[in-house]
Specification:
Helix content is 65%, strand content 2%. With 163 residues, it is an all-alpha fold. Helix 1 (3-20) packs parallel to helix 3 (39-54).
Length: 163
């Protein structure tokens, strides 16, 4: 199952939680049951929903730092939810390359939110990623983390994305 479809369900679950205030367990049981036929997809979705909700206060602090000239409450709910999910992936999912988290979040913002949401989400996530890089907090592992991986000379294979 494609991760895009899984992330769409995660956005729906996070949105339902945001609107209803229902427990994480209830939201997972209500929104994600269609993923159960694929245990890996279901586990990824459950983990992403739970981690995003568990870390909402810290993630919202990060978002607020990036929107200093904007009232946080005026950010569209779907944009907030997608930003939370994307930042959660950047911070807590070492195995997912930053570029993947950013691209998926941008595409979901275009799909679910306003015409300008993709640019907004891109700008915030790009700023968060830049801060993580400069602070040495980008601890990612796995394939696809470097530009030119498996191509060209060894020096080209170890060039960090965006670096």
């Amino acid at each position: 199952m494609r991760r895009r479809i899984i992330r769409e369900k995660v956005v729906q679950a996070l949105y339902a939680h945001e609107i209803s205030g229902d427990s994480v367990e209830h939201v997972i049981e209500t929104i994600l049951p269609g993923l159960r036929s694929n245990p890996a997809a279901y586990e990824f979705a459950k983990k992403l929903v739970a981690q995003t909700i568990d870390h909402t206060m810290d993630i919202d602090r990060v978002i607020r730092e990036k929107v200093t000239n904007w009232d946080f409450k005026r950010i569209a709910i779907l944009d907030r939810v997608i930003l939370r999910m994307g930042i959660c992936e950047l911070l807590y999912f070492r195995e997912i390359p930053p570029k993947v988290s950013m691209n998926e979040s941008i595409e979901l913002a275009k799909l679910f939110s306003t015409a300008r949401s993709g640019q907004f989400v891109n700008g915030i996530l790009d700023a968060v990623l830049a801060d993580m890089k400069s602070a040495g907090e980008l601890t990612k592992a796995g394939r696809g983390l470097y530009e030119g991986e498996n191509r060209g000379p060894a020096s080209a294979r170890k060039k960090p994305i965006g670096g």
